[in-house]
Amino acid sequence: MRELDHPVVGRVTLANETVSLPDGDQQIGLFYARPGASDADALTLLAESLERHIAPGTLSRTEKAR
Question: Nearest 5 degrees, angle CA 48-CA 52-CA 55?
Fold first, then answer.
């Protein structure tokens, strides 16, 4: 578990896992909030705030179709 103090949503506790890629030389760190936790709500708020601040013309066709 990792605790982060975000300037917009405050303290967020995230679970984390490390996944090794098939080539064996690289790993990916995954951080996520437990479903149903207030931390998940905080991440949703952050994602929504990012969507509102994307500059016009930067969305792909797939994103524009939503």
Answer: 135
